[in-house]
Amino acid sequence: MLKERMVNHQLPKGWQAKPLVQLCTLFTDGDWIESKDQSLDGIRLIQTGNVGCGEFKDRRDKARWISQETFEKLKCEEVFPDDCLISRLPDPVGRSCLIPETGDKMITSVDCSIIRLNRSFIIADFFNYYTQSAKYLEEVESKCSGATRKRISRKNLGEVEILLPPLPEQKRIVAILDEAFANISQTVANAEKNLANARELFDSYLNEVFTHKGEGWEEKYLSDGELLKIIDGDRGSNYPTASEFFPEEYCLFLSTKNVRPDGFKFNETMFITKEKDQALRKGKLQRLDVVLTTRGTIGNVAIYDEKVDFENIRINSGMLIFRPNQSLILSEYLFEVLRSNFIKKQINASVSGAAQPQLPIKTINNFKIPVHPSIEKQKFISNKIKKLSCECEELEDIYRRKLAALAELKQALLQKAFTGELTAADQPT
């Protein structure tokens, strides 16, 4: 009680804080629907993937259904338009959306809580904005459990406090945020479109270089041993176990997190000892080697040039090393070819394995690549692509910063809204 008085004392005049469970006429979980209970049509099953941060993600192409018979047999709880769904799973836990009118009869999965608000206390749109605020999400986070994958129980979710101004002020806050968020959403859409256009510009040029080649070009197989060597890693008994990786040691052991679509990333690294490195046979990088991922995430490519600080690097079992004959094909040129649509199309047509896609060496050997016999021409092409790539990256960075600033603006507005600052000028003096 003392804590409640202290919280209320800090609130703007006329505001109160109430646990979520006290604001609902219905507060329950969705239904446990197994695969065997699903059907091709009927009643739509709304899942956590449909619940965005303040928005309903329709994803109708991925919709799942149950029959009316199953609905009655399992005594499912129907979800109606303007009900609120809260995901108790990441990411983030506690994200919420209002259910729109879709024309479907709906239920939801057990990992969502169904909230039917008492309109005498709270406006649905107000609650929808509140669940996007840092204050709400931080309180949800504090009540989560689970070490590897966080989740919140319905009981703990019901204890999350919701700040409540009087209904007229809730309406004013919603009206202000509606207008501001609509403007922000339009700006976000423009920035996202510009970001996509920057990437498309680069991809288009990269594709153009290797598909409209002109005279003098040759197409060669990657199995051409004179052109390059393909080397896989050591997959034998000496392959490192989990206990043989360390945060710092002699030799960097690459993971898929390190080889991205456009080069190396070393935000997360793991290492093996010198002894373990010496026990392994194949798979050690030399300068100017090119790495290609061939299992799981396929087609990411990176070049081990002088910009990479690590002196000792090994590939894992889901990668290959391409070691070019520099007198016939430059590493930087091969890097650009391998990340172009010329190769991506061959990869897409050849990948095997449904659960764990992979690209065996015997398949890669049959891939063709365009090669210009002039090393100077290869260098010119590589430098031009690299220059355009840098320009596109600069543009992408500008748009990413703009999107981050817009996200911060939204949080700043929400912060003002739920501390009373947004409508302070409307209050009588």
From TrEMBL:
It comes from the Bacteria. Residues 12-182, 284-393 form the Type I restriction modification DNA specificity domain. Its EC number is 3.1.21.-. Residues 181-208, 378-412 form a coiled coil. GO terms for biological process: DNA restriction-modification system. One of its GO terms (molecular function) is DNA binding. Belongs to the type-I restriction system S methylase family. This is Restriction endonuclease subunit S. The lineage of its organism: Bacteria, Pseudomonadati, Pseudomonadota, Gammaproteobacteria, Thiotrichales.
